[in-house]
């Protein structure tokens, strides 16, 4: 509605402007009062929004003198055209300007449509003729038609030049527009028009053919659509315009031919102008998409993809990892936003000292930095970096602290292929180290080859993922309980999926893998539904990326309906170290799974020493103890006390518990005395193919 009212107001404003200009000194061709009226109306219309003021005045003048000739209507159309172009100009620069929204339109409209034509006349025709229309130059029947033809045309032709200068100043680099975006909207119409006019004598339409040919030639000269083509087209158009003025002055062409030529130029420039806006839109959209791929979807920090792209032209570099995992585990309840603030604070101090960019490490628990510096002492350099990190002040639980227990590792790399650089990143991040003791790692350290996995993505697919299952032993039930485990079949070997985790998050494979595994499990359960009884629940691991994605629960609903699944027989596990309570989508998806009837389990409780905090805040049904507490529970009194306290709390709240890494009967007996609901580990069963588990369960039931 606002858009409609605005444009209706602009239409009536055109009437008012035309007739008002004819009232003031039209016989003397003095355009200075016209500019005053024009500026006044522009300001009142755009700044205050008085759309009906020019409309009422325009209607009054229209009814006062209703007779309008065809020539007048043509002039009026030119005025309306100028106002719509003004809207386009204001909209374009609205995107690039930081001026307040209610002011920027006024500034740009006045400059490009009012001030600039005035300045152009000032410098082109000389000071004495700055405010007058020179009839010896134009030889037109009325002053307004020359004014608007010339001023609108000059505003349009000069705009691409200003646009190039502005973009070059902001981006500091050559700008390219993808030619493929313009093939349909530009080349096809141009070719059709050329073919049409070639059927007629070329002499009659040579000006039109020349005007249409120049932008196309500019594209080919620019090669792949470089922005210099716009500059080329603008200069040629201005040259043609001046040439036509000279031909008119010399009586080589008629007024009608002059008007036609100028009209063609205006239309072509309008087309180029709209094309420029379209190209700018596609270019910015492409840049946003590229930037999105180079940032972690959760933390919004630059990821491995960005690091690989920034280092692709370097022959050698120094790579540093700063790992905060030990620091995080020393403080209970470190929130997701606090982790991001720590990363940002450290990144800021490092950038201030070394002017270097930081990237999120594959484990999402640290930062990566690369340097191009050579001939420096690695030991001094890495110790200096360690000092910068320790001197950074961060806020945790409303307390100002300095990061301690931080692991810093460095490596010099002679870069080669992309996969080789990934291997070295993996070597650096996977290597063990002691907090507060910086180490330097040999580039030739052995590491797994991830190139085939992460750049063909062939392994994260239906045919390469196998579903295994590790059965629980229930303390008070004989039903089937257990956890689904994913294995990768690669080069005739069955491998754990966990070894590929460091890179999967940065390449966006977690969500794909989650849905492949869930659908495989649902499909297998559906195949056994007619003969499968006595199932407690089947536990599925879900990544933070999936739980933080839009529409996750809706996609699960589709699979549930497709395979006719009883959701009460399923439990979705979330790892404590990946819990993201600060994400709205994360919490909504957790609640959505429970609303479907499924259970939610907190996996590896205690690994981050934030267990009780999450038990208080996160909706859950099952708690799984981290294996570190179970492995030494017989001999370690602290582990025993922690498991006993958390298990007692969960039972009082009506929740179930699972003990992982149960490897001896003595451990199982002690856990049974504590009242732990389920046992998981090699003492109970080793992971085997899920299909084999279902076959065995059906056989036992029969």
TrEMBL record:
It comes from the Bacteria. This is Cyclic di-GMP phosphodiesterase PdeF. The gene is pdeF_2. InterPro entries: Cyclic-di-GMP_PDE-like, EAL_dom, EAL_sf. GO terms for molecular function: cyclic-guanylate-specific phosphodiesterase activity. Pfam families: EAL. Coiled coil: none annotated. Residues 448-701 form the EAL domain. The chain crosses the membrane at residues 6-25, 37-64, 70-93, 105-127, 147-169, 181-199, 230-249, 261-282. Keywords: Membrane, Transmembrane, Transmembrane helix.
């Amino acid at each position: 509605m606002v858009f409609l009212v605005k444009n209706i107001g602009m239409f009536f404003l055109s009437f008012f402007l035309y007739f008002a200009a004819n009232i003031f000194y039209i016989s003397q061709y003095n355009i200075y009062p016209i500019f005053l009226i024009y500026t006044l109306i522009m300001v009142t219309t755009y700044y205050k929004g008085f759309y009906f003021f020019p409309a009422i005045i325009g209607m009054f003048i229209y009814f006062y003198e209703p007779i309008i000739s065809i020539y007048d209507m043509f002039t009026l159309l030119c005025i309306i055209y100028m106002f719509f172009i003004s809207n386009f100009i204001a909209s374009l620069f609205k995107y690039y300007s930081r001026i307040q929204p209610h002011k920027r339109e006024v500034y740009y409209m006045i400059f490009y449509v009012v001030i600039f034509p005035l300045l152009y006349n000032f410098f082109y025709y000389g000071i004495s003729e700055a405010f007058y229309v020179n009839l010896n130059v134009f030889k037109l029947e009325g002053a307004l038609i020359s004014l608007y033809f010339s001023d609108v045309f000059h505003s349009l032709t000069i705009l691409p030049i200003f646009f190039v200068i502005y973009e070059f100043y902001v981006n500091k680099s050559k700008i390219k527009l993808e030619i493929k975006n313009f093939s349909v909207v530009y080349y096809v119409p141009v070719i059709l028009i050329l073919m049409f006019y070639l059927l007629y004598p070329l002499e009659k339409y040579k000006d039109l053919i020349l005007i249409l040919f120049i932008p196309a030639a500019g594209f080919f000269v620019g090669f792949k659509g470089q922005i210099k083509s716009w500059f080329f087209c603008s200069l040629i158009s201005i040259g043609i315009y001046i040439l036509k003025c000279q031909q008119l002055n010399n009586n080589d062409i008629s007024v009608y031919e002059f008007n036609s030529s100028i009209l063609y130029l205006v239309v072509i420039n309008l087309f180029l102008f709209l094309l420029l806006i379209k190209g700018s839109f596609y270019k910015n959209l492409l840049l946003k998409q590229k930037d999105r791929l180079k940032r972690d979807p959760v933390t919004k920090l630059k990821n491995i993809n960005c690091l690989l792209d920034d280092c692709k032209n370097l022959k050698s570099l120094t790579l540093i990892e700063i790992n905060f995992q030990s620091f995080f585990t020393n403080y209970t309840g470190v929130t997701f936003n606090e982790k991001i603030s720590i990363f940002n604070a450290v990144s800021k101090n490092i950038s201030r000292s070394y002017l270097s960019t930081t990237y999120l490490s594959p484990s999402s628990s640290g930062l990566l930095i690369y340097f191009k510096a050579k001939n420096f002492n690695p030991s001094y350099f890495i110790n200096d970096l360690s000092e910068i990190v320790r001197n950074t002040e961060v806020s945790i639980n409303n307390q100002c602290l300095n990061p301690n227990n931080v692991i810093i590792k460095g490596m010099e790399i002679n870069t080669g292929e992309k996969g080789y650089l990934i291997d070295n990143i993996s070597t650096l991040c996977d290597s063990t180290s002691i907090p507060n003791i910086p180490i330097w790692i040999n580039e030739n350290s052995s590491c797994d080859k991830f190139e085939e996995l992460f750049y063909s993505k062939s392994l994260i697919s239906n045919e390469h993922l196998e579903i295994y299952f590790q059965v629980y032993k229930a303390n008070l039930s004989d039903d089937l309980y257990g956890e689904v485990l994913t294995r990768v079949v690669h080069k005739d070997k069955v491998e754990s999926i966990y070894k590929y985790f460091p890179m999967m998050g940065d390449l966006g494979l977690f969500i794909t893998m989650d849905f492949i595994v869930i659908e495989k499990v649902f499909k297998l359960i559906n195949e056994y539904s007619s003969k499968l009884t006595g199932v407690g629940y089947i536990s599925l691991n879900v990544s933070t990326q999936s739980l933080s994605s839009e529409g996750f629960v809706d996609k699960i609903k589709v699979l549930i309906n497709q395979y006719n699944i009883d959701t009460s027989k399923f439990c979705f596990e979330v790892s404590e170290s990946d819990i993201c309570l600060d994400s709205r989508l994360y919490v909504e998806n957790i609640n959505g799974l429970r609303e479907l009837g499924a259970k939610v389990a907190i996996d590896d409780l205690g690994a981050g020493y934030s267990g009780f905090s999450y038990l208080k805040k996160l909706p859950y049904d099952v708690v799984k103890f981290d294996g570190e507490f179970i492995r030494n529970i017989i001999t370690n009194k602290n582990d025993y006390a922690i498991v006993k306290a958390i298990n007692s709390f969960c039972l009082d709240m009506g929740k179930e518990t699972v003990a992982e890494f149960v490897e001896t009967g003595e451990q199982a007996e002690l856990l049974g005395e504590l009242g732990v609901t389920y046992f998981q580990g090699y003492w109970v069963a080793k992971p085997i193919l899920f299909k084999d588990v279902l076959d065995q369960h059906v056989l036992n039931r029969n």
